[in-house]
Batch of 3 targets.
Target 1
Amino acid sequence: MPPLGPSMDVVLVREAMLKEWDRRERPEGRYALLKVQLRCLWRAHASVVPPRLVFVVLSCSQPALVSRAITFVGADLPPLENRAEVFRLLVMALVIYAGMAVANGMYQRRLVRLNCLGRMGLVGLLHRKCLTMRDSDADGSGAVTLANSDAEDVANSGELVHDLWSKTLELAVGMYLLARQVGWVCVLPLLVVIAVSRAVSKITDNVAERQMDFTQATQERVSLTRAVLDAVKTVRMMGAVDRIQAKIRDARDREMGAYVRFYRLMVAFFVSSVALHLFSPAFTLTVYAVQAQIRGKQALDVETVFTALTIIDIVCTPANTLLGVIPEAASLLAALDRLQKYLLLPDREDKRLSLDSGYASSDIAVRIDGATVRPAPTADPVLKNITASLPRGRLVVVSGAVGTGKTTLARALLGDVPPDEGEIRSDFTKEGRGLAYCAQTAWLPNGTIRDAICGPLLDEDGNGGVDEVWYRRVLHACDLEQDLDQMPLRDATVVGSRGTALSGGQKQRVALARAVYARPGLAILDDVLSALDATTEQHVVDNLLGPKGLFRELGTTVLLITHAIQHLPLADHIIVLDENGSTGDITLYSYYFRAVGPGRLFLLTFSLLVYSALAGLIPVWLRRLAESGGERMWFYTGVYFALTTGTFLSVAIAVGTIFLIIAPSAGTVLHTQLLDAVLRLAPQTYFSTTPTAATLSRFGPDMGMLDRSLPFALFQALQALFRVLTQAVLLAAVQPLLAAVLPVAAAFVFVIQKLYLATSRQLRLLDLETRSLVSASFLETADGAATVRAFGPRWAAASAKQNAGAVDSALRPEYLLAGIQQWLDVVLDLMVPALAVAVIGLAAAVKESTQPGQLAIALTVVLNANTYLLRLVSAWTRLETALGAISRLRAFRLSVAQNMNLNPTLSLNWEEGEGETTYIPPEGWPIHGDVVFSRFSAAYVSETLALNDISVAIPAGARVGIVGRTGSGKTSLVLSLLRLIEPAVPPVPGAQEEGAVSIDGVDIFRIPRETLRARLIAVPQDPMVLATDTVRESLAVVLPLPVSREDNKIVGDADVNRDKDMVEALQRVGLWSIMQARASSLPREEEEGEEENSKKDVLDITMGTLALSHGQQQLFALARAVLMRRVGGRGQLVLLDEATSSVDAATDKVMQSVVREEFAGYTVLTIAHRLDTVMGSDLVLVMDGGRLVEVGKPGDLAGKEGGRFRELLRGGVWEDGKR
């Protein structure tokens, strides 16, 4: 796509907006952001005024043309004067309507440019805020919602601003013209406007509040969905899909409830607007006719009626628009408030100080004096009165039990959490001054491995600026060479969103390589060794932290947080923290209409058909009223009012049906289908190869389109279609000769819309797809803000550049789409002068047989037909665009069907078991827990086997350790038992046709996935803890969904009855006392029974408030496993995937004791990088390259010369049974 041009450079616009924001007045008033935007974009605003002014002048000239044309038809003029008048009328029609078309096209183009500039600037403000705000306030999903919704609404406010002055001017001119036409009766439209505006003000008092509630509900649902997508493997491993799906459905139900409450007001406003448009002319003409008859003045004639109708339309249209300003302005102010509130959130307080002359020493890099630090603003301090120094160029190891504040210390050194007391001084307080950071959970941008390591040094071709020799040394030191050799694209392999294409150990080593490659003066490494096997860990430690390691070579000061006490001898300084804390497919319409339901669709269609028919009859009846000469006045006016009332009621029913019935019901159905497809049907490889932002866009922008854009586009398309048809019938009835022109006009419109739809459809789909780039940019920035800040201004500038590029890419199709929309508007607008000239010319040619009423109706039809033609084509395009969301939903479900061997029909009611041979095991299965792999191979992608020809029999009740270096296939072996990785069959190279896996003699591939996972006990490596969940809700995700047998509905309070079991599970893993201590510092209500009150308080606290460390979260995951055994109805097979990777040795022993005692007699499979955790096992499986290379008792394998297990033990420095 072509660039936007130098005047729309994203970087320049965002820099200008950032500069204006930084110069804003303080303290900020409510309209601070609005003022900043107007100051930054005043030139763009000024360019919109001239074409809009020309359009208003020409629009107000239409009544003169109508009046003059009707008078001409009824007048008997001499031939010469007759021809001159015809010429003048034709020129007037041509100038007025062609001028309006051109002026409106220029206005719309400049308005779109203004909107794009506004969006560029606002997104720039939001992106910078993501990098500077406090970690406790950071929420990537919130920023995505603001950028996709509120920022777009505010950026599009230019139309509102220019409508205010232009519509006010148009209204004033219209009132003047109406006063000249009907005298004092002209005040009646104003009285109707005032009455309606009073009603609207009552209706819209709560618009901002309800819109905020709706937006907040949407944001909560999207945030919850995002958290689940990030942890979808964990959710599936735990067999918690039913619970999580019910939670997201509840969030969707709350969102739809807020939607209905908000749209009740919007429907009421819309109905009020329709009432103004319909009843203003009815009251005006009726009162005029009655008072004229009473006073004995001239009765209504055709010229007066239809000229007045044209003027009233000029009055009512801007009045309608100005009425619309009330809720629109309320919504705009609400969006501005949300944006400004976000932008004014406190920035992180970097209270770090430089090592001044009083402290400067060549031997000290960082000095901490009496620092007291809390991990979150609402949490208790975990570091109290800490005093320590980090010697320059030395290795400082920080150790301590779980929850003692090790990560908080790292964040304090980064400046992310300020100390309450004391001070932190460093040579590295300026961001980018030789600082590198590896978080406990590795953050990787979605790009190649080479990009992730070298960062912003790379040019657009992925090369320039890279020190290849140093790069190769870094790869070797981080033991990445063997991993890259196994990847077809080596370091050009895309890591995926959040690094999902890599194993946990590979992600951590890539992040570590990034830190080393930056040649930092200070490196903060937070538990980076926990995900590595013993051999790889020893290689990395020797080559980075050893006497000849790269960090020593660079003279880097290293702060290493670790539980691996075997590396303490390498440390120059040790800090120990104690516990005191210190497309146009017709099937798409069918798909959507099935979600709508035939009854609802019929009600909408019928009401719109009645509305169009009655609206078409009104001008015909007005002609009869005007030609009646004042006779039977009450009859004619009574029927006129009846037609107006019927029109009003039918359109009110249609609007209520589309927004209050169709939209929420169809949206709920489609959201459920999408959620089913993602959580139940999508293969795990989908989440490894698809960025989270791309999937999240289906639940965010796409769902927003299905909820808001699609229903409105359907309503407008049907309304415009029926109105165009009635206008065509009416024109053929009053001007039969013009019937010959209608097929030509229809053919012209058909060709134009085909060309327009073909182009706009593709651009709109591109627009929808590129919007996810902005979402991905915000999610990535929010996730890695601490890392980006740590690596300094160069990385921050690269992040801003990447975000600007995403905005530019997203705006290109939007801007081009606006261009072709304006082209369509101009082309269809130019049909109006052609039709007007044809009508006037035909009337002049057959003047003797033409009645003034016929010409009046024909001109009215011409004026209305263009409006509805434009609306029809535009609405049809928006409908097709919105159906693009349906297309993506259907395509996703079809692709899932093919992957899962399901029947790829268009049914909305797939079941997971469809297409499979299903077997539901009896209650309590697996009763014994024996596991057999028979020549089993599995693959994530078709090219490479993750498991290769695995054969092993694991007896019931055995305790099995699974070991091997990072990427050897340990996790894949466990995932295969949960059917998270599917068997590979020929023609995949190396796959075996007869491969099988059985538990208790049952082929697991006969069991539905969710049934299988719900029968096993799994503790994933990454515990899923949702910050907004209470402790009770977070524990209950692994329990069966409580359903009432009577009505098959979820029982809302069933989990409360399990409070005792939950407390006991937390006590069993040692978390209950920690939670009680933290809960005691929070306010709570006094109730009967101190002990029961205490339990309820703790279980009702949100997980985010407790601020558990990563190690404590792993204890929490073990508590879930205990709960699964006691009340979850799980079988005799336990799977532990690095369940103790982030805990200290003492906590590890506690967890191992819990596992032995709670799961005595169970078959337990444990993946471990710490080899001491498997030395007490009955059996050890050694994996390498996806193959099972050794099986045996740990003692036997340890003594086997040349064995792989023995090599791993030597790498782990295992001597005399101790490490």
Target 2
Amino acid sequence: MCSSLCVSPLKGNSIKTYKYNVLTFIPLNLFEQLRRVANLYFLALLILQIIPDISTLPWYTTLIPLVVVLGVTAIKDLVDDLARHRMDKEINNRKCEVLLDGRFQESKWRDIEVGDVVRLKKNDFIPSFCVCFYFLCRETNLKFKMGLRVTDERLQEERQLAEFDALIECEEPNNRLDKFTGMMQWQSERYPLELDNMLLRGCKIRNTEECHGLVVFAGADTKIMRNGGKTRFKRTKIDELMNYMVYTIFVLLILVSAGLAIGHTFWYEEIGSNAWYLFDGKGQNASYRGFLSFWGYIIVLNTMVPISLYVSVEVIRLGQSKFINWDLQMYFAEKDTPAKARTTTLNEQLGQIEYIFSDKTGTLTQNVMQFKKCTIAGRTYGTDYLYYGLDNHFSVFPLQPVDWSWNQLADKRFEFMDHSLVACIRSRKDKDVTEFFKLLSLCHTVMVEHNDGDLVYQAASPDEGALVTAARNFGFVFLSRTQDTITIREMDQEMTYEMLALLDFNSDRKRMTIILKFPDGRIRLYCKGADTVIYERLAPNSRHKETTQTALDIFANATLRTLCLCYKDISADEYEAWSRKHKDAQLAMYDRDIALDRVYEEIECNLLLIGATAIEDKLQDGVPETIATLAKADIKIWVLTGDKKGTVSPFSPTGKCLSSEIVCYFHVSSENLRIRQANRRNELPTTRRGKKKPAEPFFPQPGKNALIITGGWLVGSIDFVDMACECEAVICCRVTPKQKANVVSLVKKYKKAVTLSIGDGANDVNMIKTADIGVGISGQEGMQAVMSSDYAFAQFRYLERLLLVHGRWSYIRMCKFLRFFFFKNFAFTLVHFWYSFFSGYSSQVAYEDWFITLYNLCYSSLPVLLVGLLDQDVNDKLSLKFPKLYLPGQQGTLFNYRNFFISLFHGIFVSLIIFFIPYGAFLQTMGQDGEAPSDYQSFAVVTASSLVFIVNLQISLDTSYWTFVNCFAVLGSIAIYFGIMFDIHSAGIHVLFPSAFTFTGAASNALRQPYLWLTIILTVGISLLPVICIQFLHKTIWPSVGDKVQRNRKKYEMEMQEEEKKKPPAFQRGRRSRRSAYAFSHSRGYADLISSGQSIRRRPPTRGGPQDSIREVPQREAENI
């Protein structure tokens, strides 16, 4: 039927995202796990333990922990892969109608092939990458899709579809979702294929009852599957630090083992070789015995490198991610959207954020647009107040909304206050006003549905929907469209216009153009776009440029989003000549976009300005308070937006946290940066007392500044970053998606800071992926940002709780877990080291073999694991009330090399106590039965019992938040130890396995001696007493912020309860306050963002006119008047 010319072979439509099958799961999963250095290390140890001359421990002491670790990870991988298997099976078995043997038959997705014709109905998912045949359809994310006119006209019946024999020539399969280049050759004619003609796999058909498509790419070749590759793996700072510490432990292990092996060599030469009772008949010299001793100590001391560390960390992170998912205070009921942790590897990094990079529209604002003002032919419409007065004494009255009862098709939810514009429209005397709203009703890609007699608009962007709705209410109602016509109602008359060309909007063009043929034969071009690109293309004789520019500045300062509108009449000959060039550019197979842009530029020139629109985007609830709280936590927020600088110049993003002393810089010359760079290169490395001379600051008051710049001004140097980081607030305007990612990269590169990016649209994906942590807002612009993010939720205000509560808790828990994990392993392992001095450095162990096997699995794992999951120093409310509690995470003070060596020396101290106090107690001791208890097995029982008590009581001292589960874990671990110990020391199990269980009766014999219980109590007491004293001194003499909050917790909780009772009613957005040009909002009442109620820069009082008076009068006062 058809073919697609590609170099690579074509694939079927079946997809495979799973990794394993029944045969490959065990070998492939083992291979993947053994690629980790820690697992490979313990496998090597297991092999060493099989060698009789080296092995000092039974093989099962390493095998059992290794099997448990590998098994837990394998089960987790298996569960994940089974979910992928189920998803693949569900998708591959979906049903679709395919044209087979001249008629449409139901078929499964997996059986579809390239060249098949499929029939899709409303709300069907698209099975593959297809060419759209019928004139119009739309996907779930409301992207406009359009079939070729020739296929729409000639392929209406099954017979015609069965006889379709076109040749499709297109690009090779790729992951570019925003671009497609192809050509269809049919009946000696060539037709261009673009992305607008294509249907993407996985999308859903909307707004059309039925359409047909030709499969071009199937299965793994489709664009959505090509985008399903592995994303960049993100690692936390603690991950990197933890790996370096494991390497440090490994080096220490080698050094200690080498030292003990040398000791054994000398000991054997001096003592061992001369002791007849040590003769083993092997004939090995001292050096060889030292070599074997080295490998023996590698085995004995292997627990210094913790085998269960990584799997324990994964379990903790998984639990912390579930807590984020289950947090009802981050659930947005309005859209039934919970918070979602889409990764389990970055939770503790949320507690270390230093810089937040935020999009504006849809992230900080609601992305719900409302038409507020406009300027037409030099006159501005859209005031909210009526004012009059004499001698500068004005009375202000709020206007009532316009009554739309005269317009049967008006949207009753639309509000507009300026009655003069409605009167002008209804009089039909002003041609510019008529042309203005006619342009709004025609120049767009909005779709319309008729729902019970009502018009429902579905727009690709909220801005477009707001503009078409405004035109609808003012009497120019968009009714319907086909592939080449648009029908509107102009007041009471229905008109249909032929659409000759549609030059769509994109982020590079920043404008949209439509060329229409009027019913009377005239050809007119309508264009709307950003003022920066429109003014470059205006005709020299275009009127109202200055007055419109003044109005645009006023709109921008009022934080409104603006678009310029213009038109141009075209002669038939001019259009025919341009149309031929346009068609040639559309058929270009290489550099099609460049060719089209060149053709677009030819027609989009000498335009005549009509006016401009101003749209308000409302601020999300809680944004000012969230920004203020995060700023108090010393988190710097940068706003990266595509909007013009005028909309953000008066105010900085950090709102309430800035005082009136903050100075805002708008036009810092980039020449300053070049001078600074030259000076730095020419500077000699001046040093003073060994320290480098600090660079001269850019601003007179570092930290008291706000910087507002445009994307074209960005400079990729350390000087730019230094200058920006001197400011408390930075706003980058007119930035492209690539520039957003570059700004994040600069801060990461030069400041070595932990960064977070948050956005809601496809243009934020690069920024989200570049940052250490990416957060997606599930808003009005689709799910691209969410799908690329690490964490997702519905409102910006939830970021406060994500960082200050979940992030801080996760960081504290992980740090406490790691510190204690290293300590308990050092305390456990180094007892062997002290024992070596009394055993001839012979690689003998101080404990029973089964205790070594089960120590990390059963006796000490659960309490520390629960601390990593549940511990909290203060509750969530106090975490939000005191943002300064977040600072230790930014500074990395809770886990670093200093903490690591403290844990090391603490472990050394405890191991000394555990070994030498029982050792001293056992010397020349007589038991109550007249027998000496000073045998090796009793000594091993006492040291092991002391260790279990110490580590479980130590974690109890470090636990800040006690629950029943914690108590059960601590007491249960001790009970499990004694239960297992008495079992494996029993005579019954020795009879069954005499070689594996050799400590027969050791526990019962040792622990019936009161003297040994006193030894255990003394050992535990001396080990814990210094810790108790140090903790007491720290909390009383050198308390941290967290200690102070904990000490006064009850008082603060009572204060918060009182504040809740006194809290005024919820904020009403209708209340009027002084208007600001808040950097990234388009709603009223932004003076709430500044705690002082003043703008950033102090201004001398001026004698205002009527408009200034209007802005200063709150609505409530006006109502009282």
Target 3
Amino acid sequence: MEKISAAYAMQWSIDLEKGLRSNKPGRAIEAIVKVGNRLEQWSKEPIHTINVLNMFGLVPGEDRLFANAILLRLADAFRYGDKDVRLCVLKVFRVEARNWSKGVMTKDRVPNYLELIRRVKIVYDKGDVESKALALRLFGCWADIAKDSGDVRYMILLSLRSSHVVEAKASIFAAGCLSELSEDFAMVFLEMLIYLMTSPGTLSTVKRMGVRAFAKMGCSSILAMRAYKIGKMLMMEYSLEFTVEMLISLSKVASKSRLVISEQVDFLISFMSQESTVCMKAMALRCLYFLSMKGILKYLLNADLISTLFRMVNCGELQPASQCAALRILCKIFCCSLPTLPYMEAPENKKLMSIVESAAQSPILSKRLLALRLLVDISLGLRMTGGKSPVDGTSQLPYQVVMLILDQITLLMKPPVLKPCRPHFEVKQECQSLINLVLCMVKKYPNLGYMALDRVRSLVESFVDLCEKDAGERKLDSYADPVATKLVCCMYRFVETCIEILDEASAVTTQIHHIVKLLVKNIHGSSLFSHETCFNYSILLHSHVNKNKESSNWIEHERVILEFTMKMMSNGDYWAAYRTGKRAMCQGSWFVASFTFRKLMNNVQSDACQYWLKSLSLFTQAESAILGLSFPTEGRRLVNNLQIQETWATCYDGALETCVADYSKKFNESYIDICSAIKMLVAAVSTDKTFFFQRWFLALRAKVLNAVVYIFTLLTSDQSNIENVGNGLSKISLRLKRLVQEFDLLATSFIGMDSKSFETISRLALECSILAFCTCFSLHFPHLHTNEILKHSHLILIQDLVERLRYIYDETRTALKRFVTFIGESDSCFHLPLRTRIYRSGCRERETLDVCKFAVCGILRMQEKAKGKEDDVFVSRESKDRLQLLSDILKKWMKLSFQVPKHFFTVRSCSGAELFAFNADTTNGNELSVKPGFHLSLNLCVQLINPPVRLRKLHCILSAKPSTETPETWDPEEAVDLYEKLMLHVSQDVNSSSRKHRRVCGGGYGSVWSFVCFNINETGHQGFSTCLLDVSAFPVGSYKMKWQGCSTVTEGGSYWSPVPLNMGIVFSVKVPPIVSS
């Protein structure tokens, strides 16, 4: 367990003292810098309670004692040290001053702050001018503890009138710091500022510092308004030479008061008139950009502001940086506020649009990209407002914008790019930026996708021909030209992403299919690319085109990419072949993946790699066998054509009949292969968490296949005994429901997982939920299922499926809600814990949704048919039809495309958490024990390992059973139980309790559990809490606590359930020894 800073405080204090006493040159400064870094770390931690201090063996108050010792030593170093030491101490507290509200220098954490002030005051009283200045700046850094000190206030105000520049500037800095925290002091300082700014004897450097101090007057809205009015008056009436600096300060102070912000915006607009200097126009734009970044401008929009900003875009006297600032402000406005923009006349709008279009063709890269970004934002805003916009005459704008961007890409890929005067990375960066803009447009306007793809296809073909011609003239290999290769790769990545967007919008047409085929053909015939690159783009592009798994398309797809794989193998490029096998698994090309890993197994040296490749080979063999069930004849023809019979000797060992018994046999063989793959990974592990995701994912896949085998077995059993078949289906439905929950836990346990992997697992969970629903309701007859507990279980299955389809709008959800009426419940109960959901409707999702719709509608028709019919003859006849429907559903289900999530190939150690428990009863020492009949009171610490995001809270559940027979390894079944309880608690309790945490305990002689909440510190790695676990019913013995956690990662409700990296906490219930008198 990582120690808190307070546990190191004594040693840090000793180290600082040793460093300050050392006679070695520079040793004192080194010690001060080191302790400064440690104080910065300490400031990120909250004030710890007595329970936390007890965990680390600290006496209450010990942390504050040594913190104050360190601060006093630094104050003494400032008092007695030379200039370099004093500067070093000042730098330490300048950093610490960033944490005024919660750092170690807050008033409530420094009980002897008066002593600190006294020691530094001595430097001010007895030192020279430079010493006084350093002391004043230090008081500014100590604003939280110095703001109420009369001595400090007097020193600062006295030094404001100093004739020494360095002292006067230091006093203004200190006064500004105090003004941020103390309103009464700020009022006095503001009056002093008026005198300083208007006094003819005040030096210009001091006046400049005073102007900047106006920005500090934000302690209250009234103070900010008064400071703004005074600053503006000084600026207008006294014609200050520091107008530019005052404009910045006024903008900063205006941002802190809504009372004057509108006035400041109008004030800034006035400086962008023709009479203003270039410098003032540039500064006014800079200030407006500052206000836009604060999110203030969107509430103060008017036609004058927008037209003024448009004029600044092509203002010839402004520098390009200022023109870009105007474009950035407009982008911010149109990105967030188009529906609320003021209406302007059509002629004015056309004029403004022509300005932006002109800027979009600027020779300056940043201006050109910003202008195009602005046009895109305006177009996207039109979509948001349904085409109604204050910018009239823009009905054709989206099309024109896309054409303008594509024209820029065409210019970028003209012949000079082959002999560029610009760096390669700059050319590629511009190309990628332009592509991203086109993708934004296609996402909002899918009807523009075909035009964009066709234009890119034509551009790529001509560019590739041009590159190869140029290489031939120079007698070079074409793909050795880096800029040409990078640009074409950018274009192909654009095509891939564009197809994904169109696929999600159901806008992939036969014309787009044709474009993709031409692009793939072009990449195959070009020497710009290696075999691996050809493979990657072939598999990625084909995977979107051949989504329906038509036999001809499927065979052609597999044949093309298999040929590239064989070429890589023959060239000995095994690492490239491994990467292609990985991509094939992620796209569901199991024949290619199986061939690749079988060939690679004998070309590795280390045992770990050998086990890993054997595992992949067994896994891909299992999945290719399942895929072959859908295409038995085509698969055999593919194997024969490519002469790779030895690779699939086990997959195609004879003619395959498509009967249920053969399906069951093949699925069982695949199940055995995946179990063998898991054993290979277990043999390769060095710790329990090595290949953790991979083993868990394979185990889930094996359980699903085993469930399918069981269903096939029931379908081929004696169907005359319907009751036995129904009981079997009910049992398998419960197993599948548990697997669905396990998929949910898998998806939320790996926070570093990419979005596509999460979508893949969510889809697999949905497919499993469909099976659970079908097996539950295939033989469901309302008059035979009247048990309330059973009805509730059925309701949960329906609710689970509805929740997963929440963001998919089709008749399936409606049918599911209608289905509830057949089990006698209302549809008002759909409020159980969150599940992984389907958020998009790409080709693979639609494939799954089609099966779901077929299953739900088919079973619903059966339920409607059976309504009011209760005779045994009807039940017997209807049962056979229903089992046939289940068989048809299962055959469709098994043809669903199965892919491995990309995260499967992330083999580094996973992120997770460790839980440490200590007995709250300190009389027991380090022993975690409790007397029989008592509750176990615990002090808890959670340690997050490699968290990729910053967490604020972590909810946990701790559970223990009276049984001493607990598994030694992590049990996913038990983890699912805990996760379900925890998610239900979090979803119900997050808004119902304002307490720090709520304890909920199980009772009786079964499992007991308790919920706790950890507040994670600012480092994002550690949190503390307490827990009371009711183990009063436990007999004497040793027990192990299990735990599970979850945390809200985003405001939208995304959860992370960290993998428990320590397997459990052992505690004992025992009778204390009898102490003899």
